[in-house]
Amino acid sequence: MSALNEQQLARYRRNILLASVGEEGQQKLLKSKVLVVGAGGLGSPVSYYLAAAGIGTLGILDDDVVDLSNLQRQILHTSADVGRPKVLSAADKLRALNPDINVITYQQKLNEESAEEIIADYQLVVDATDNFGTRQIMNRVCVKLGKPFIYGGVLAMQGQAMTVIPGEGPCFTCIFRNEPPANAPTTSTVGVLGAVAGLIGTIEATEAIKLLLKIGTPLVGRMFTVDLIGMNSDQVEVRRDLNCPVCGSK
Ligand SMILES: [Zn+2]
Question: 166 alpha carbon to ligand 1 midpoint, in Å?
Fold first, then answer.
């Protein structure tokens, strides 16, 4: 691996000081490729922290434009970005934060056809959507290609996160089989505090870095849950479903 230059040694000093990272780990991060699906409430902290950490290639996928009502939580975007495509607004901020990395934008929805081609270029995928169908597509393609997938979800004052490593634990579909009913609460009906999305997003970014460096214990087979109104957090054991249509044995 090529050595870090002076600028990189300075920029990533606090990473390098970490016993579990070091110069070798930082070089590994700079060679890493991560796809973040969604540039909103979760995608903002996820991509900001991954860019800051020096993830060498960061893919950002989103088909939406910035709306005034996004700014309460989607901290990658500013008032001046209202009306702009989220991926372009996001790329500006991420490149300004860290010109050392390569930011690739996909201004589109993830569908069955495009997902496999896009995801094939990355080592792992971070879910920063709030869409059941998109999560199912990401999970299915990641299981098929054997790529880790980090799930995160927020609603009101609550959040949850889990990491899927194909073959090592349950996948998203093992746990979430059926589409939520049309009248189920969503952030557009019951709201979400921006800081709650920030917390779950930073957990997802941390999981991604741990997986890239093969350090620590990922959230595989356990769902991290947090209720910020009472400041309670928990971990729920989740098991693989042998009849899962995505990762099951059949
Ligand atoms: Zn499964």
Answer: 9
Closest CA to 199 of 241, 232, 242: 232
The domain defined by 32-237 folds into Rossmann fold (3.40.50)
Q: Find the 116 Cα to ligand 1 centroid distance in Å.
A: 18
pTM over 0.85: yes
Q: What whole-number distance in Å separates Cα of residue 234 and Cα of residue 224?
A: 6
The Å distance, Cα 132 to ligand 1 centre, comes to 15
Locate the domains of the chain by residue range. 32-237
pLDDT along the chain (250 residues), means of 10: 89 98 98 98 98 98 98 98 98 98 97 94 97 96 97 98 97 95 94 98 98 98 98 97 90
Rg from Cα positions in the chain: 18
Distance 44 CA to ligand 1 centre (A): 28
